[in-house]
Amino acid sequence: MSFIVFLLFFFLFHSSIIISVVSKCSKSFECGRLGYLEFPLSNSRGCGLFTVHGCDSVNPTIQLEPGGQEYSILNISTNKFLVKDHSLQSLLDTNSCFSFINLTLPKYPSISFSFSPNLTMFECFNETYKSERGRYFENYLNYTCSLIALYYSFPTANVAPPVPNGDGLPSQCHVIQLPVKSNYDQQSPENVFDLFTSEYTLEWNLSEQCSECQRGGGQCLTNDIGEFECKR
Ligand SMILES: *[C@@H]1O[C@H](CO)[C@@H](O)[C@H](O)[C@H]1NC(C)=O
Ligand SMILES: *[C@@H]1O[C@H](CO)[C@@H](O)[C@H](O)[C@H]1NC(C)=O
Ligand SMILES: *[C@@H]1O[C@H](CO)[C@@H](O)[C@H](O)[C@H]1NC(C)=O
Ligand SMILES: *[C@@H]1O[C@H](CO)[C@@H](O)[C@H](O)[C@H]1NC(C)=O
Ligand SMILES: *[C@@H]1O[C@H](CO)[C@@H](O)[C@H](O)[C@H]1NC(C)=O
Ligand SMILES: *[C@@H]1O[C@H](CO)[C@@H](O)[C@H](O)[C@H]1NC(C)=O
């Protein structure tokens, strides 16, 4: 008998711990001028997929991964936000050739990101292959930045050949995508850095697994080793 009582207490105790952990994650939270935010955003550790800071300030920020960079949130809607990427801004401000690398957006099993509008470009190294590239990127605009040759075209420039898909690219050339101003192809800037912008729309897409977990009343989380976890 006392064993059954013990078991009963044991289970009561445990289930109350589980309930208190999950219920600590509120369904939504108020975030200043951004209004009420909800999953996958959160304002406390261990809840949601990424954390919003500074809700009581004029400049709330978001961190897409623990210890990662903070983006200012300028606006938000159902599955996207308009962010300001301060580290890209400082690269663009200084006309740095390091601007021409892919944005480092985190890769998680539960959620994927894309940014728009973006421009696909080709970044090539090593002058040795210049003539080969000249043929391949005929009609493309080019810009040389230190050791990098950048080739790009505008969707409205119908002189450009079909965008190469990465197969058969000339040696030592890579595809990169960077956020561009929304009217970028309407202008011919003196400075190629003026095409780009540090304010872009970041859109997220939950994996099927994660959406299912949420629909089923669980908490879709990323555990300490970056794996999907559905906490119930
Ligand atoms: C914020 O987003 C909403 C919905 O997408 C849009 O209607 C509004 O114009 C945006 N506001 C700003 C300041 O961009
Ligand atoms: C670039 O924009 C296109 C069209 O909006 C989108 O499909 C693609 O995922 C974007 N690229 C990145 C790296 O976000
Ligand atoms: C460029 O490529 C050629 C041929 O592969 C190689 O011999 C040369 O060292 C490379 N130059 C640089 C600067 O990497
Ligand atoms: C860039 O384009 C100009 C004019 O089309 C061409 O003369 C030059 O060789 C190109 N530079 C590179 C690095 O491809
Ligand atoms: C940059 O991102 C694009 C789109 O995600 C990808 O196709 C490409 O391989 C990436 N380039 C490099 C150099 O990682
Ligand atoms: C979002 O993710 C789902 C499931 O992984 C996928 O089927 C869908 O095509 C994605 N949608 C976009 C817009 O990337």
TrEMBL record:
Keywords: ATP-binding, Glycoprotein, Nucleotide-binding, Signal. It comes from the Eukaryota. InterPro entries: WAK_assoc_C. Residues 1-18 form the signal peptide. Residues 165-230 form the Wall-associated receptor kinase C-terminal domain. Pfam families: WAK_assoc. GO terms for molecular function: ATP binding. This is Wall-associated receptor kinase C-terminal domain-containing protein.
